[in-house]
Amino acid sequence: MVIRLSWPYFQKLMKRRVLYAFLLTLLAANLVLGARIYFYSAQAAAVTNDSPYDSYKLLADVMEKVRQEYVDGDKVSYQDLVHAALKGMLGSLDPHSEYMDARRFEDLKNDTEGEFGGIGIMVETGKDKLLTVITPMDDSPSYRAGVLPWDQIIKINDKSTEKLGLEDAVGVLRGPPGTKVSITIHRPSTGETKKFDLVRAVVKVPTVQDINNKQEFPLGENSIGYVRINQFGEKTADDLHAALAKLTERGMKALIMDLRDNPGGLLEQAERVCEQFLPYGQKIVSTEGRGPTPYYEYRSHTRGQRINLPMVILVNSGSASAAEIVTGCLQDYQETYTHAIVVGEQTFGKGSVQSILPLGDGSALKLTTAKYYTPSHKVIHEHGITPDIQVPLSPQEDEDLHVAHTQGAVELLDEKDRERVKNTHDLQLERAEDLLKGVLLYSQHYTPSKVAEAGK
Length: 456
Hints:
Layout: H1 7-47, H2 52-69, H3 78-91, E1 98-100, H4 102-113, E2 115-118, E3 121-125, E4 131-136, H5 141-145, E5 152-156, E6 159-160, H6 166-173, E7 180-187, E8 192-199, E9 201-204, E10 208-209, E11 224-229, H7 236-249, E12 254-258, H8 267-275, E13 283-289, E14 295-299, E15 311-315, H9 322-332, E16 340-344, E17 352-358, E18 364-373, E19 389-390, H10 395-404, H11 415-422, H12 427-441, H13 448-455
Parallel strand pairs: 11-12, 12-15, 15-16, 16-19
Antiparallel strand pairs: 1-18, 2-9, 3-4, 5-6, 5-7, 7-8, 10-11, 13-14, 13-18, 17-18
Helix pairs in contact: 7-8, 8-9
């Protein structure tokens, strides 16, 4: 049977089919688009699930549960819980970030100003979370007792430091002069454990000293000057400038700058120390990180006379932070401006920037915000500075040298140990002196790279 369609009817039928096809296509596109939107929305939700408001609510809920259900909840204030949370939060980031309550913040300011009460010890929490000595301060109770860099403090007053944060440890170690505190250390280099009973004292921090641990700065043999920078405090650059002026007046022809066991300090002071050896406009250090200034670069601003003499910089594993910035900077310019040869051992490798962010209640955050780079963009953090000439010391040599330089310590030893310590030699310092004597002897042919190569 043949069905004949009139033209108007045929047109009407075709219009309906086109409409249906269009509607089906639109529906399919809507389904596909909807599925994609749902997929990407789910992904975005997963990525942005780190909602600050949900986290604030979680923190508040936990605090309330502690207050309501903890067995001794009446003894814990909201402020105690918040401070504990902040300490844990900052302590989980890296070994150098911390929350400082008002007392700890005040202690930090006293450190940089140069005087406080305690046992005279620089400590930090290492990668293994152990409380580790960076360096004891000269002529302090810990220094005189024989505490050494890299000693791990495992007990304070016979209580384990395993769960004691850096801030709390510093708070226990410090106290009024004349009061007693004991520390038990583990010495990784020898495997031994020692207990020291110490009496707190007013610890003064002279940041620049001469070979005799004073501030007289006599000129050595062959007109070689010597300065030791113990740490970088608020007056370090000025103190160094005064010391170099004295040595220059006395006819200094070469310089040894000792940065061994220097734990660092203020970045601004490290920059000002470098300026005394560089011409105007030279890059000293750069930092890369986050915050308002993700990239920071400091260049020398001085236009006056600078120290332009053969120089040796002494470093070891206790040289850290600002000491590494100075070493890396002057080493980078050894072929052009500073003529500086680095002698000793690989440095600590602490090249991260801690910014102090004060809070409204007198407390503050010490937060890692960037990493340091030398002028040639060598990274310091977890690498350290490699000496041009490596002169390693054994653990015994290092300890004997420490005792030999501690006033009154040698007399406390038994006869055998006393004889050994009296005959100890500072091999790193002797190598530095020999290098500079050779440089002065052949000054017309001096190039730092050749001297460094000859000294290996």
